[in-house]
Amino acid sequence: MDYSILLGQAVLNGLVIGAMYMLMAVGFTLVFGIMRVVNFAHGEFYMLGAFAGFFTYVYWEIPFVVCLLIAALTIGVLGMLVERTLIQPFRSDEMSGMIATLAISVIIQNGAVLLWGPQPRAMPDIVTGTLAIGPFSFPWSRLVVIAAAALIFTAFWLFMQRTRLGRAMRAVAQDTETALIQGIRVNYIYPLAFGMSVALAALAGALMGPVFSVSPFVGLTPMLKAFVVVILGGLGSVPGAVVGGLLLGMIESFTATIFGSLVSDILQLLLVILILLVRPAGLLGQREA
Amino acid sequence: MSALLEVDAISRRFGGLNALKDVSFSINKGEIVGLIGPNGAGKTTCFNVVSGVMSPSSGAIRFEQRSIVGKKPSAIVSEGLVRTFQATTIFPEATVIENVMRGAFATTPVSMLGSIFNTSAARAALSATRNRCELLLERLSLMQFRQHRAGELSYGGQRRLGVAIALAARPKLLMLDEPVAGLNPEEAADFGRLIKDLHKTEGVSVLLVEHHMRLVMGLCDRLVVLDHGEKIAEGVPSEIRANRSVIQAYLGAEEAA
Amino acid sequence: MEGSSTATLGRDEPRLAPRRRWLSGAALAVALVAALVLPQLTTNQFYIHLANLMLLNSIFAVSLGLIASVGQISLGHAAFVAAGAYVSALAALSFKLPPILGIVLAGLVTGLAAVLLGKILLRLRGVYFVLVTFLAGQVFTLIVLNWESVTHGANGLLGIPAISIFGLPLSTRLRFYYFALAAFIFVVTFVWALMRSQYGRAFRSIAENVRLAESSGIDVSHYQIVAFALGSGIAGAAGAAMVHYIRFLSPDSFTFNDSIAYITMLVVGGRHTMIGGVLGALFLTPLPELLRGFVGAQHIIYGVILLCVLLFIPNGLVSIGRSFFNKGSETGTSK
Q1: Total structural domains in chain A?
Q2: Which residue in C has a C-alpha nearest to residue A108's C-alpha?
């Protein structure tokens, strides 16, 4: 048994899953930080992204990058519509908003079952071959996922830091009232933020399509993990989501390799509870009175 | 005569910041004491520490000679130390009388089980408490709003309700957190008279944090002055008014502003 | 000027005018008689089965409502139901424990588990609490699925005995109906009395203003745990009762979809009242059965109804009835 090979595999898988978790968590925490909405339908947008990627890549046979763009745009726009019609009415009522997103998730998931059937569909790898470094061989398809996620996040980060719109969003996240006084149009920011958030989820779904399969039920687990990451990293903290996502990916990869996936899942939950006992705001979370 | 409340060298740190440093003072039975100081002096932190909302980093707090450090706020209320809050002072959805009944929760002599079974003893205890609460509403000129939703009251009315809720807990020491903030001069003066009345009729000692100087000077027997987390002066209002370091502290704050 | 010198327990509001009290009392009496007599008039087992489900779902929804009364939403409620079911089923199968005792045991075990979990979880701010209950529910399902030596995993447990009362097995739908009806009346009466008592006063205070509640001498964490433990314990006991009726149990019996269903019932009926849970259960339980022809539509319809209620009738079906009787605004429970 060559442990170094196992280690290399575990690291690679950890990075792949971690990349996905990171994208999911960043989107999820973005919406909470700006709008104080817990979006239980987040996983379903991931699922829609997976289907968008699947259909465009398999049936239209266009370059995958274009598929990603289409997925991000269509689901992003869908997200904006959903926010304007279904989430905005609950701005003053956090709990009702949460339950509303639950309802939306039920509708989207079961709608997908009605439209496309419950059977999982396999998606071909977008690139074949492996990269050989020393004793390790890393499949290009996995490396591409990591690279794409890194690129996407960088673009997101630059947007938030460098553009006026991004800064406006951060202002709203920090202090909505002051942002309003400064003339920031909150009614445009909210749908935009929500759209961006679900676009990130859709991208994660599309990227992971070839890795896992595509079915109406693929959204639950990534959302679960996004929750774990966000609890660890703190609701509303983007750095927390990044660190937490990658960390969780690694923890999951290693514990699953050693103990199997069930124990890994239980360990993750115990970790969450432990951290919450010690630091109720998460590792990097915003301290709220 | 030993003090009702003894605050003994309490400090409170937030990360690297010393919000309170070695603050000591005491309150005797029957006094009205004012806690004053420029903005950021640590008055609210002091309030929060004494009422159990946060724990001191060091130091002791004794109420009726018993330590109350580390106790839950609800337990401290049972001891007889009750506070009001600046913001969100009421239960907005409940009726005014229900608000006060909730304030009286800890002092209602009913067994929890008895209240489930609606025994006659339970009914009697609740009836007596209800009468007491209605009396309080009358004292605070809120009786006519008794069945109204508390959230519908005017700002001044909500403030008075906050005091009623606190009084329902039968405090020995009532801590008022900026009771007249946001009230116009006339309402503030009325409130001051109200506190003086309640102090006499309910037999309650008072510790209040306030910025409203005229109210504080006219109402309080004694003043404790904080600046940058430390106590810089203590004495009767006339002494404090003339105290150089106090004047400096306020002027200094103004200059910096 | 209403005559309110008699103390009303638990909350302060004018007592119902004598005429309205008479009407409510009469309505209840009629409902009770109907509930007792109607099942005798039909031979269609399906309707009786549906009635049983409605009664059980009402208990699940009402117990969730109890937890919600302190302002906490639990997304893991179905896990407590399932836990109670497994405790009682396994006790009956492995230790021949009479199901009637199994139900009591299930309630105690799940209540105790809730106390322990509650001590850890209830310190969390509302949103974190919801997320963690969701996670905990998922992990519970995983454990049940994989602990095959005990739970038989996905194959489930078969041949679970029916409840026996004084030697009479409740092996028919009709017999179980009367048991379920009695349980329903017991639970509803208990929760009603609880919410009218000082407990209810404490719960509602916590839901409205935690900080002020604590500063009014209400030990917030204590009462949160009480609500959570009672709600979960009742759910566990009801889950056990259900499993001795269905007589089969698998990880699929109570899933996250059921947690969502309970929340839907509570919200649709009326979140802030106890009768809301009952109304919601009565209204929503028949739906999946009626829609069995349209595959997949059953779950979507729940989501759509939930969303519509949230948007257009936020206080639930109860509020429609309320405005019909033109009551003023008030807090807490009412019938």
Answers
A1: 1
A2: C300
